[in-house]
Amino acid sequence: MDLRDTIRTYRLFSGSYDIVFGPVFHPGRKEAVRIANDRPGQHILEVGVGTGLSLPHFRRDSHVTGIDISEEMLAKARRRVEEEKLRHVEALHVMDAEHLDFPDNSFDAVLALYVAPVVPSPAQFAAEMRRVCIPGGTIVLVNHFMSENWALRFFERRLARLARHIGFHPDFSYDQFMHDSRLTVREIRPSNLFGYWRLLRCVNEKPASILD
User: Fold this and answer.
1) In 10 A of CB 86, how many CB atoms?
2) In whole angstroms, what is the distance from residue 133 CA to residue 129 CA?
3) What 3-state DSSP class applies to 105?
4) 43-75: string of b/e by CB count within 10 Å (b at 16+)?
5) pLDDT tens-digit series, residues 140-188
6) Which of 129, 137, 139, 152 holds its CA 20 to 30 A away from the CA of 185?
7) Which residues share a beta bridge with 185?
8) 97 — alpha (psi -120 to 50), left (phi > 0) or beta?
9) Nearest Cα to Cα of residue 62 among 81, 78, 40
10) Per-residue pLDDT averaged across 187-197, rounded?
11) pLDDT band for position 211 (50/70/90)?
12) Is the distance from CB of 51 to CB of 14 less than 8 angstroms?
């Protein structure tokens, strides 16, 4: 996966993203926020905040920071924050998910929605989330993973070669991601249309290094 492909894809879809992907991904997005933001006064990071569709669903007493690799997507998120007066959103930064510019243990919870299959190194992406999240904190992901159904899996593998050119990884392996990410999963549930996506609720166990 090439980061340039991802940036190019999000630049292309930034204008239509809310219409095309907003309703389809809404259930997973809303449920992930509810799980991560379950207490007052939390400091929360959303990795891959995109156009900010999740931001209105956070508690108003939270302190939310969002990052994304796409300046075009973040421009829409900033307009959303201003228009909807989302004062709990403290900052929105252009930033690479594999190289987060935050100190260790900066956040009580971290979310990454529909991000893992489009980063060049899922292991480094997960290590950075673990690093900036406090020990015992919550990490929530929603992703598509390669289907366990043989017919769908065959289709996803055939599609993968083409899809990689637009920054998507339809044959993204759950088992491989769990091995590489070293995340400690406490709950897995189906999400969105037909349960084709999965929501992972994880507890952050230190240390965060991918080499530990």
Assistant:
1) 17
2) 6
3) coil
4) bbbbbbbbbbbbbeebbeebbbbbbbbbebbbe
5) 999 887 555 544 544 445 554 555 544 455 567 888 899 999 999 999 9
6) 152
7) 202
8) alpha
9) 40
10) 81
11) very low
12) yes
Does the domain spanning 3-203 belong to CATH 3.40.50.150?
yes
Query: How high is the pLDDT of residue 173?
Result: 81
Residues 67 and 48 sit within 8 Å (Cβ to Cβ): yes
Query: What secondary structure does DSSP assign to 133-156, as a single string?
Result: EEEEEEEEEEEE---SSHHHHHHH
The predicted structure's pLDDT at residue 197: 84
Q: Which of 45 and 5 is assigned the larger pLDDT?
A: 45
Instruction: State the SS3 of 23-53.
Output: HHHHHHHHHHHHHHCCCCCCEEEEECCCCCC
pLDDT of residue 126: 96
Q: What is the pLDDT of residue 10?
A: 61
User: Is 157 in a helix, a strand, or coil?
Assistant: helix
Angle at which helices 3-13 and 17-36 cross, to 10°: 110
- Give bridge partners of residue 53 from the DSSP assignment: none
| The pLDDT of residue 113 is above 90 | yes
